[in-house]
């Protein structure tokens, strides 16, 4: 083998990969999130990793981030793959899914989708090119009850609260508040303002003011009021509405937006204090949101960006079907959260293997005994390995110890003797019956 | 919306996608397979969907099937993505993973990996371009105990037996038997013979004979004996060895291969009759197998190809690391099996949503009551929806019925009244306490 060229098995930047100890934690997280989504009746959907490019690009804005696929050995004349791209989020594929399966779904259709997505970023520290998102969306025909605008952040809160994260806050806003306020101020292009305000936390108030005046054509007075609105923040709906009203702008859309925002805040008032906060600077740059918007960030590192985000959209499936199919959704950035905590050493490694019990192999002659013992244990759901070859006892126990296997089982080494099990943590070794023994519950985590 | 161009939301051929009812069955399958793998102590690993092309192409043979990635808006001069391809199996990424994480793993390293893989096939009926595989492999330093050659098909058998599949058989062979036999016959290029014999079931004995004589340069006598060997088949190790021995060829490698094959058959003799059969025509075309090989097929549709396959390899990680890291693995073709059964109508659709209980929303005023009721139920693990808006009772019950939700819960419609729950299957409606009620076990599937 020594004369062979050795390829360095390097990680590919932006494509995270975990050791078994970390992967077992990630799997536990995924199971927890899934159970949380199902607890609220959301159904699992998976879509292909690939969509036709015209589906992916229908919204235009993110086109620079798409990875297209090409067959390595394709004929130059063969264009059959040229229109395929990896999805960059789960919302666009879901909108296509709903339109395509429209006649087979019951509405309002509530689905969760936990899949990898890809963004064709330049390789760069901290940028993921492949990552897992956990999305829930509700899509309905013609109108989506406001009920869901409050239910989705509740689910996200419940799910993330079970993951022992550093403190974080879910910020809520409503695009109708922003748009209604800007319109009330007589601004012609509210979307340009939304895009500028969306940069507030990155570039600061003065830079936003400059954009608003220089590029969006606002008067300094208008720009000042937009920044006043963006400064409104609070968990109590009445105070938030009062603060906005005090700014002296009015429009029917603004009123409707405030009513919706207050409904969401009031519906979530039973959550722990500070869990959900209205923040009128939250705009969500993507232009398909039309009402409630969400964005969650770590309290001690708000600059890391959103760990969970979403909102209400009116027409995402509109390009696929001649029906009005509005929706509201929220997306948990699983990899975004998990990879940060791994990098910071805040994820306690899990077990390196799921084995509860290692059954010792006393000798080649007693292999059948060992296999039968293991089969009995497995039959009751105990994850069990049989040591893979006859070897000195010390070596077999050392293997269990290195792998963190909590119990070692000794089948009879000679006829007439009984079974024994050793608790690797406590060191106790006691007689046990493979037909009835179970590990104590905590060891089976 | 009517003036908009409507994109037909068509499925992309070769990229399967399921309705929620079918997806829920697929998820159950995946959970079942994962639990089966963990029962034997295999640890979860996931690798990125992408590898460097030189990793994917190190083995050469499958290069025409690789999808490469390109950024849609990449600068023509930017070659940073040009060397990335989607993995076409899980074995090559796993070999790279083991080499890369070598110092952090405990050997023998036993992992399972359940992920999507991609093959850049031309779009064509019945060919998947994206599909999920469920692999288990054991890799060890220097040598892998034969124990695992028998354990892997046992796990595959146990896992697939729990999925209510049409009858299928796992065929076992050993490349040393083939190579040793061909060498014993004085054939210079045994690999050419293996490739030809691998086509036996597709093209028939006469065509294979012709290839062996015309192209591989065998004498008709040698070709005949190769075909005689390929005809040997049986579940009993002693008879299989006897039949091969009767063909009058001998070599040390052949003897070793027969001994290994017999060990595998004997170790699995406790499985149901006919579950595992030695079939000396099984060759597995890929040239990295060096010992035991596996291939499973449906009894009523053997031509559909292998639903589960694998074998022992000596040097798959050899291009990444200057250590000898042999392994043995088996791969369940989840999508291959599942999609066939879906297409044939042999998968009974599951629930369209995981909801156990729909809590009726009596009126906007009683929303908090309904939410509290649901929270109590969810707190005990009952998957619960609250109806999303005040509506006529009949409409709410109809929604539960259409979605197949087994229970409808009536919180008090006015003060002083109690809770009731309706069993949608039986029609009974009874008083119930949201703080203690649980659905009967079978309804929670």
UniProtKB/TrEMBL annotation, chains A, B:
GO terms for cellular component: cytoplasm. It comes from the Bacteria. Its EC number is 6.1.1.21. GO terms for biological process: histidyl-tRNA aminoacylation. One of its GO terms (molecular function) is ATP binding. Belongs to the class-II aminoacyl-tRNA synthetase family. This is Histidine--tRNA ligase. It comes from Streptomonospora mangrovi. The gene is hisS.
């Amino acid at each position: 083998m020594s004369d062979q060229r050795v390829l360095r098995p390097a990680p590919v930047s932006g494509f995270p990969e975990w050791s078994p100890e970390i992967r077992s934690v990630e799997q536990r997280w995924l199971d927890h999130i899934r159970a949380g989504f199902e607890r609220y009746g959301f159904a699992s959907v998976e879509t292909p990793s690939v969509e036709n490019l015209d589906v992916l690009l229908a919204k235009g804005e993110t086109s620079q981030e798409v990875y297209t696929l090409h067959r390595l050995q394709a004929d130059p004349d063969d264009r059959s793959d040229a229109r395929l791209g990896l999805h960059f989020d789960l919302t666009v594929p879901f909108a296509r899914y709903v339109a395509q399966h429209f006649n087979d779904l019951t509405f309002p259709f509530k689905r969760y989708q936990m899949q990898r997505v890809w963004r064709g970023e330049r390789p760069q520290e901290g940028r993921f090119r492949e990552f897992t998102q956990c999305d829930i969306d509700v899509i309905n025909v013609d109108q989506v009850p406001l009920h869901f605008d409050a239910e989705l952040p509740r689910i996200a809160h419940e799910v993330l609260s079970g993951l022992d994260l550093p403190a974080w806050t879910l910020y809520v806003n409503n695009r109708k508040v922003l748009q209604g306020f800007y319109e009330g101020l007589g601004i012609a292009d509210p979307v340009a303002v939304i895009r500028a305000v969306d940069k507030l936390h990155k570039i600061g108030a003065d830079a936003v003011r400059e954009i608003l005046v220089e590029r969006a054509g606002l008067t300094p007075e208008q720009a000042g009021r937009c920044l006043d609105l963006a400064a409104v923040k609070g968990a109590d709906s009445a105070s938030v509405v009062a603060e906005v009203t005090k700014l002296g702008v009015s429009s029917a859309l603004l009123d409707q937006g405030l009513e919706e925002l207050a409904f969401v805040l009031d519906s979530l008032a039973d959550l722990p204090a500070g869990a959900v906060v209205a923040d009128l600077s939250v705009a969500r740059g993507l232009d398909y949101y039309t009402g409630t918007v969400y964005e969650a960030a770590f309290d001690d590192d708000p600059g890391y960006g959103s760990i969970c985000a979403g909102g209400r959209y009116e027409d995402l499936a509109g390009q696929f079907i001649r029906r009005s199919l509005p929706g509201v959704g929220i997306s948990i950035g699983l990899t975004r959260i998990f990879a940060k905590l791994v990098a910071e050493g805040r994820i306690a490694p899990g077990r390196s293997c799921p084995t509860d019990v290692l059954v010792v192999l006393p000798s080649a002659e007693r292999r059948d005994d060992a296999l039968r013992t293991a089969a009995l244990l497995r039959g009751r759901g105990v994850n069990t390995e049989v040591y893979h070859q006859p070897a000195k006892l010390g070596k077999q126990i050392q293997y269990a110890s290195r792998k963190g296997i909590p119990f070692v089982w000794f089948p009879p080494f000679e006829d007439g003797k009984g079974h024994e099990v050793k608790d690797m943590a406590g060191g106790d070794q006691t007689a046990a019956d493979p037909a009835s023994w179970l590990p104590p519950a905590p060891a089976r985590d």
